[in-house]
Amino acid sequence: MTANTASTMTLLSRGRHIASITPRGELLAPPRMTATALRLLVQVCLVVYLWRGLYAHTDSSAGLDETQAVTYAVLAVLANRIRGLDRRAGRDTVIQHLHFGTIVYWYLRPMSPRRYYALRALGDQLYGFGWVLAGYALSLAVGIVVPPSSYEVAAVFAVSMLLGQLVLYYVMMLVDLLCFWTLRNESALLILVFAQNLLSGVYAPLWYFPDWFITLSAFLPFQATLGVPLSIYVGRIGVDDAFVQMAVQGVWIVLLALFTRWLWDRAGRRVVAQGG
Amino acid sequence: MPLTAVIEARGLSKVFHTTVRRPGFAGALRSLVSPERVAKVAVQDVDFRVGRGELLALLGPNGAGKSTTIKMLTGILTPTSGEAVVAGVVPHRDRERNAHNIGAVFGQRTQLWWDLPARESFSILRDIYGVPEDQYRARIDEFDGLLELSEFWDTRVRHLSLGQRVRCDLAASLLHDPPVVFLDEPTIGMDVVVKEQVRRFLRHQVEERDRTVLLTTHDMTEVARLAERVVLINHGRIVLDGPLQEIRRRFGGTWQVRATLADPADVEEIERIEQRGEPALLPGTTGIGVLRREGPRVVFGPVGDDAPTVHEALKAVIARFQVTDLALEENDLEDVMRAAYLSDVPAQGATEEFAVQAASQGG
Amino acid sequence: MTTRTTMTAFLHSWRVAWRITRLNFKARLEYRGEFLLGIATGAIWQVSIIVFASVLLTRFPGLGGWSSTDVLLIASMRMLAHGLYVLFLGRVQYMNILVQEGIVDPCLIRPMPVYRQIQLNFFPVNAIGDLVVAVGLFVAALQRSSLDWTAGRIAYVVAGVIGGMLVEAALFTALAAAAFHFPATSYWSQWLEELMGTFGSYPLSILPKAVSAAFTFVVPLAFIAYFPAGVLTGHGGDMGVPEALAVASPLIGLAAFVLSRLLWNWSLGKYTGVNG
What we know:
Chain B is an alpha/beta fold. Chain B is built from 13 helices and 13 strands. Helices cover about 40% and strands about 25% of the residues of chain B.
């Protein structure tokens, strides 16, 4: 019976509805879409002004000129949008499921919480990617972002960005999984996200940071999420060096995948011991 | 009891380990450094079986261990000892297979997606459970017919009223046609009309679809309307397992049958019984006594431990006497339950042993 | 006689508030992992902002014509104001959650102002971390500064920090007024917090006039620390607003807070409760 239904429905078609939960919720709430567009627009304008202002008396800093810095900053704002979705309004964050006790249903279904989580995340990413593409096209058109210097750079960037999104997916999953143990505090979650943004190079490229900070970052997965792909895009990391960085991204993906798998297991056992 | 047990609990026990805080402000600071851990027995040695197409109500006061029992049977909780078998599967060991066999609604916790219309939640669950499209449609139609879901299933869940949401949750839990259904206080906070609708729905599921339902509730009317059998649980142990009448019998099921006797010979007989002294037992019956008499008007009541139920007594009185007028009074079911909850007599009479055990595990 | 009774009533209400705060603090101690994590996250938040600000300071010297010690004063005053805000008034930020969980409804029938009950809802453990870092940075800023710390300047710094706290509280209180009716305000308060973290700690004069005007009159984060620190360090005339306005920052903070409270009360009057 189970095998039968599994063969008639591929995972893809089973996952389609799960993946579209967030986009459907957003499309049903037009004010939220307007808010997203407004916030994205204002944030892009702000970073453009900020970096132009900072470069007013400087030609180049930490190996980045004004065009590179502005391009980097705008892309960072856009890329951050991919996962800046408001699942909280939909009462569908892990922390809320733990709070309301609805997490038990994740463990009562014939689909592992890990797979369900992955399908949801995939849908969120694809939906967010739509926003990013629109924002990117608009930014290119008005000239605040320059295109990559060559097709080669564009291709390497695309691969690195994909790897970076995977690393990001695991890092965010890690924060969500932490909720099963201690994090019942929403503000703590926000702060962790902020720190993670900072370490990823969302607010400013890590090149500007003091040496100790760069060294510290080298041992953490965060810069692999955005800092590396965006640096490849603006040409701060050359194509030749890019492959080493992408290998590092790959290592992080493997490590985090194993670690989070282990944590899912532990989280499941924790739910099973305490009843959600 | 039916031959095939669909739900079977054998010696189920669950011990939770929690940290306790020391009293006072300094105590709280000290607990920050070295917390003190204690064990708390939530459920102990619970045994029962539920057959196919049977609806069993699990009753008991708050904190008695009902939810813990349900969670062990659904596989969310792993029992500390003992075993649960649901539709041939040990729930916590084979979670995915178990998931196809059971449906569950936990009171006010909804499994629907807050931001989506309820109907879209159904189609997500259809995908998760892999329900074929034709069956899905048929079931949705059936549930709509019984619960009138189409009136509101295009509304986003966040805007549904409690009754509407729980009705959707019930439908959601049955979409994959599970033979076993667990309902933890499904009708809590509903108005009487919706409650009645949900009860009809549940009865339909049991009688027409042959589902096995395990239900917890505090609503005694519901128990009286739905449950053929109840399991009463208190302090984590089963106190009683049997028909609802059994609870009446055990816990202050006082009743009175008032009869006006037509035959003077019968009145004289009663008079003779009364003169024999206390207790004035009716000969040929067990546990029916004469409480008062005013001429031909006699009041019968239960006497002793093995007194019959009010219905049995009624039958006995009618069989024996010719009556011109008959009235019966029975304790409210809620009063009976209050007596049952407050009574400190566990099934095996082992309260003290239980307390000692709990304390020693706390070390 | 009336003054005496109002005085006793006043003292009594503060005693009650203090007692509740003590209980709240104890309640947070119950979960020790979370308690320690709460302190840590507060510290992480502040350190992240310091790192970000220091990046801008070291990479782009002469930020908008300000010396780095002067900018440090802005950053540390903002942080101190933020820490105090979190400690005393930060609970307004959770209004949307409190409304959704139906915690506001019982507050309406208790004999204590609803706003105060909201503030006494739980103890903000992260404020401890916030304040520890903020005080450290503030002491460092005072040591570096070459200003002559007269009684007048000290009084103005204190007033400035309190004013900054009130501005931040006013912004979040105004948002909280909306939370009575719209559940998705967390989206905006998150953004507001991020804006204050990224744009509140350094001179707004590096931004174009229109943008700094927006930060003065629309989202008035200029009054939190930029204006008072500017007045102290002698930048009074070149901040794009009449100097008197900058000097009046503490008063404006107070006025903004009073206005936001009025708005909040008005919104509370229109509150119709949550349906389950």
